[in-house]
């Protein structure tokens, strides 16, 4: 009998979904060839990477085993970098943010993290990146410092003073930790699909959380915001959606507009001592939801026209199920307001918004729970105030427009 070429032993290195057909042409012996073919077909169906005496055979490659093997492989998606990255120092956090990859979970230990914290790394819809920590994991930025560019963008040598900055970094989830003692709290730039859940932001110079540069389809929920606008009271918003049209030159990255559309503000506690609006909804943004929040208006300053819990200049927002109160100190005109600024390109700014099931206690100071600035400007897309809204201690009543049952 003629000697056969021996089969090399294959070592399993990794699993994948593989479809394989093996055709064996043996030097002699048809039955043995068919048996070998069946064994290889079954084995290739379970594995995708092999090491043989002829080297490593990877998906889609081929090797000589002493007979011919025709293989078609379909490997699974390579595993993402889903490892947990534990950090306990500012330097470790900066490195983790700089090197973040889809699927990673960055976990903060308790403690104070002092420095500039920014990431430009994107997650994906299927593998978002997360940064989480307990409430006593505190991020502080003593900036700003360095020469600022004309428009805010991560720039070597420049620290904007933001407590945490996502720039061009979609699909992140931020949860649990605290940001304080920074120029701004959390800034989300060109980073749609960001989730902020259960964070605390307080004692910041300007606004607490800003979704900017078309960071659409994002959400902030279950979070607590107090003591904003310590240096710039008129810019001390709790949550800021979009940008004023005067800033679209820098932040209008969607056809010249900052389209922070469909952002949700849910179940947060905002105030006291939020120096400007609890939520400022800017022109050119559409379709957001502001629901289930508690607004404590103590300490609102009235500077830069900041004299209400919410100012809506966006289009098609639903504002429902919120509870707002006001007591001294502060300057308080109305609970909710809308305005209709003109922009280029043009939008129905301040129109098509709906208020329902909101409870407002104006402390005997505010005029209307819901003040609509213009009916005529929104005649084609009117604002709607439902009778399910309630007002107490309002000098002028629930609203200045007819109520919808």
TrEMBL record:
Q: Which InterPro entries match?
A: Pectin_lyas_fold, Pectin_lyase_fold/virulence, TAT_signal
Query: What does UniProt give as the signal peptide span?
Result: 1-22
Give the UniProt keywords, A-Z: Signal
Protein name per the record: Right-handed parallel beta-helix repeat-containing protein
Which organism encodes this protein? Amycolatopsis nalaikhensis
